[in-house]
Design brief:
241 residues, alpha+beta, 9-stranded mixed β-sheet, 3-stranded antiparallel β-sheet, 25% helix, 29% strand, globular
Length: 241
């Protein structure tokens, strides 16, 4: 037997509902904003100025407001803490270990964002740390973040977040055009190859890579060549819209 829906009963239920019946948890969003500088993967970090983990480094992050979506929080975090808007962003994974934050029960929804370094406008106190990956392929695990030659002590589980981003990017390179997000609008095939090699952590065959990319339908020639270079200027390409 089915029971018909009664809007009056539901309105009464909601009016009398006590949200304190169940324990509440906090929800945060942490964003790994990655770029490539001098053929090295780098991520935006900030030094924590308050407890817990004061003096350690973290990814840009913040708690989700009661009237805010997860995507909206990610955009706010990037705007307020990294000074960047309109950048490629994708939800990554939810980190929910019970003891991941000593303050209270905090579930963190992680995102990653990709940007060409020329688009970065880092605010005071915001730095770029080099990402050092100790594993090959898509094995996964934590990574080391290095700033001015010193490995950073990372707050919470943020080193694990960056490690998962690297694993995700390595897995997606083969079937999505995600590498273009780390390039300027016009680029050479060699620049595209270097992006792939930086993410993969290994070299790729130049001729095979060129054939694959040119046959992929993902890019088109601009009809222009590099300017102001000390060698034969290479042809420029752009991503197909």
């Amino acid at each position: 037997m089915t029971t018909s829906h009664d809007p009056t009963d539901e309105a009464r239920f909601l009016d009398e509902y006590d949200p304190e019946v169940f324990d509440r948890l906090s929800v945060a969003v942490d964003v790994a904003l990655l770029t490539i500088v001098d053929d090295r993967l780098a991520v935006v970090v900030l030094e924590r100025g308050e407890h817990p983990d004061r003096g350690r480094w973290q990814l840009p992050g913040g708690f989700v407001a009661i009237d805010e979506s997860l995507d909206g929080t990610a955009a706010r975090v990037l705007r307020n803490k990294a000074g960047i808007v309109d950048v490629y962003t994708e939800q990554l994974y939810t980190f929910g270990a019970v003891d991941r934050d000593p303050r209270t029960r905090v579930v963190a929804v992680s995102y990653y964002a990709l940007v060409h370094p020329d688009a970065l406008r880092l605010r005071p106190g915001v730095r770029l740390a080099e990402v050092t990956v100790p594993w090959s392929g898509e094995a996964g695990g934590s990574v080391a973040l290095v700033l001015d030659g010193t490995e950073l002590e990372m707050a919470f589980d943020h080193a694990d977040i960056v490690g998962l981003v690297v694993r995700r990017l390595r897995g997606k390179l083969a079937y999505t055009p995600i590498g273009f997000e780390l390039l300027p609008a016009d680029f050479t095939l060699l620049e595209l190859q270097r992006v792939h090699e930086t993410i993969l952590g290994r070299s790729v065959n130049k001729d095979s890579f060129r054939r694959t990319m040119l046959a992929s339908g993902q890019l088109e020639p601009t009809g222009e060549r590099q300017a102001d270079v000390g060698h034969r200027p290479a042809a420029l390409y752009r991503r197909v819209p």
